[in-house]
Amino acid sequence: QVQLVESGGGLVQAGGSLRLSCAASGRTFSRSVMGWFRQAPGKEREFVAGISWSGGIASYADFVKGRFTISRDNSKNTVYLQMNSLKPEDTAVYYCAADYQGAYSIIYRRAESYDYWGQGTQVTVSS
């Protein structure tokens, strides 16, 4: 069993920054592709960013390119999402997810491809 615990969410003004963290436990973290998703009220959960086992490959949704950066520290079993230039439309619950079934560098954008999920952390961006 894998446990994922997100932290770092909060309220920030437009243009500000937040750094989300997701701490993993229970399985070999370095053998998982990690993803960040988000879900706004009334909307479907959507892919934000993903990162390969080693951290050498990252993938981003178009709407966060150039603003968000995903990274991981396998020695700390933690994945991060640095969010800069935040916009009100970034307001959502952010979830981290782990994919233990795929290949080391294949980053899926479908939520169904991920095996484990955290409980989510709220990010609210005020205008």
Name some characteristics of this structure.
0% helix, globular
Structure, explained:
- The protein has 127 residues and is mainly β.
- The protein has no helices and eleven strands.
- It has strands at 3-7, 10-13, 18-25, 33-39, 46-51, 58-60, 68-73, 78-83, 92-99, 116-117, 121-126.
- A hairpin with a 6-residue loop joins strand 5 and strand 6 (58-60).
- The chain is globular, with a radius of gyration of 13 Å.
Report how far the terminal alpha carbons are from each other: 40 Å
Weakly predicted, low-confidence segments: none
Indicate the mean pLDDT.
95
Query: Biggest sheet: strands, sense, closure?
Result: 7 strands, mixed
Task: Report the total helices.
Answer: 0
State the helicity in percent bands: under 10%
Structural class estimated from helices and strands: mainly beta
Shape summary: globular
SSE order: EEEEEEEEEEE
Strand percentage: over 45%
Q: C-alpha Rg, in Å?
A: 13 Å
The strand count comes to 11
